[in-house]
Amino acid sequence: MQKTISPQAPNPTHSIVVPTIDWHAAHEAVGAAVQAAQAMGIRVNVAVVDASGVLAAFLRMPGAPLHSVEIAIDKAYTAVSFGLATSQWHGALQQHSVAVREGIVLRPRFVAFGGGLPVLENGQRIGGIGVSGGSEQEDESCARAGLAALGLAA
Fold first, then answer.
1. pLDDT in tens, 9-68
2. 81 phi, psi to nearest 5 deg
3. Do β-strands 45-50 and 124-132 pair in parallel, antiparallel, or remain unpaired?
4. CA–CA gap between residue 72 and residue 2 (Å, rounded)
5. Order of strands, edge to edge, in the sheet holding 116-121?
6. Were 49 and a residue from 3, 14, 76, 107 both cysteine, which residue would form a disulfide, CB within 3.0 to 4.6 Å?
7. Does Manganese appear among the keywords (predicted)?
8. By CB neighbour count within 10 A (0-12 exposed, 13-18 middle, 19+ buried), where does 117 fall?
9. Which residues pair with 57 in a beta bridge?
10. What angle do CA 151, 40, 120 make, to 5 degrees?
11. How far apart are CA 9 and CA 98, in angstroms?
């Protein structure tokens, strides 16, 4: 006779539930950001990461700068990591010590210029979107279009 082991629910003191963006929303946001870029006449790379900073969707428009591939991904990663738009880091760092201001910008994957936004749903970080290839303002505008397509605000 084979013994059946019944699964036990995780102990709530040892785990948490982390809401994260689903694949459909990630792809919808990328598509909307690319459409915004096309309307502006620019070529960009767009990345969406989940709540853990793992890539969930990506699109590179033909002719977008190659180096901007990783920059777009890192903008999304930075935005979800801290829940702060990457364009806000310059001002935010002015409130910190010199050690923090000079040290954090040396961290791998940290981006402190515009184009990355956290994806927030009901006040919870569920992901990040990053756009790279245009100016900082153009990139952020495209990222906002991605959020707007999901009915979310920056």
1. 656 678 888 999 999 999 999 999 999 999 999 999 999 999 999 999 999 999 999 999
2. -60, -40
3. antiparallel
4. 52
5. 55-60, 45-50, 124-132, 116-121
6. 76
7. no
8. buried
9. 48
10. 25
11. 46
The beta strands (E) that lie in the chain are given as 45-50, 55-60, 116-121, 124-132
Residue whose tokens read 């006449």: 41
Q: Are the CB atoms for 94 and 66 separated by under 8 Å?
A: no
∠ CA 125-129-131, nearest 5°, is 160
Tokens of 114: 């515009």
Each residue of 103-152: pLDDT tens digit? 888 899 999 999 999 999 999 999 999 999 999 999 999 999 999 999 99
CATH of domain 23-149: 3.30.450.150
C-alpha closest to that of 51 among 17, 91, 28 = 17
Indicate the DSSP class of residue 101.
Answer: H
